[in-house]
Design goal:
The protein has 205 residues and is an alpha/beta fold. It contains 5 helices and 10 strands; from the N terminus they run E-H-E-E-H-E-H-E-H-E-H-E-E-E-E. Helices cover 31% and strands 28% of the residues. The chain is globular and about 35 Å long.
Length: 205
């Protein structure tokens, strides 16, 4: 079986980095469960995404190599259009941020699969509705996991918390809660490298 090479991307939150064992894993699929889209997930992911948009590939990287463009992030079906000046304030390079809108729920998963297959993005974040993930099934999640590994991409699938009880091939699964307007609580309930645990961080955005 294909074994992805995993590297670590700092989350921007020291306590979360420690719990994860170094940061967000690049080279596999991460599943982030939320109570509803727009529940603080972009604030959690933003520090790492902003960092990626400003990273450059090594000088020796051939132009034809996957991810050679360096720093391009793709947001698929976000529940709102990110505010450009706000992204700049957070440190994003706007010319490296791509947003894909979809007409049908299943198109978000299709767009994620094609983006990972192309190797053109360092990160692919997809917000996927309940109906789409119910119809997609285990095999598609496994395929997304393998594609992320082949491209060494940071891939995050965001879906509703009610899918926590379902079987998933994803090695890192988290649930995000907002106990207060100023904090985010992240529970890691499946982790292929370290034990489970919960951490609360300051909500920055």
């Amino acid at each position: 079986m294909f074994a992805p090479a995993v590297t670590w991307l700092p989350t921007g939150f020291a306590a979360l980095d420690h719990l994860l064992g170094g940061g967000w894993p690049r080279g596999l699929l991460t599943e982030l469960l939320v109570s509803g889209h727009g529940s603080g997930e972009f604030g959690l992911l933003s520090p790492a995404l902003a960092r990626l948009t400003t990273l450059s590939p090594p000088p020796s990287t051939p132009p034809s190599t996957p991810l050679a463009a360096g720093g391009r992030v793709l947001l698929i079906a976000p529940p709102w259009i990110p505010y450009g000046p706000g992204l700049c304030w957070q440190g994003f390079a706007l010319n490296q941020v791509l947003i894909v809108s979809v007409g049908q729920p299943l198109e978000a998963l299709w767009a994620m699969e094609e983006a990972l297959r192309s190797g053109s993005c360092t990160s692919v974040i997809a917000w996927v509705g309940a109906r789409a993930t119910e119809r997609a099934g285990h095999s598609l999640l496994q395929r997304l996991h393998l594609l992320a590994g082949r491209q060494k991409a940071w891939a995050v699938l965001i879906r509703e918390a009610r899918f926590r009880r379902e079987r998933s091939p994803v090695r890192l699964r988290l649930e995000l809660r907002c106990p207060s307007p100023a904090t985010l609580q992240i529970e890691i309930f499946k982790n292929g490298w370290r034990g489970a645990g919960t951490v609360t961080v300051e909500r920055r955005f």
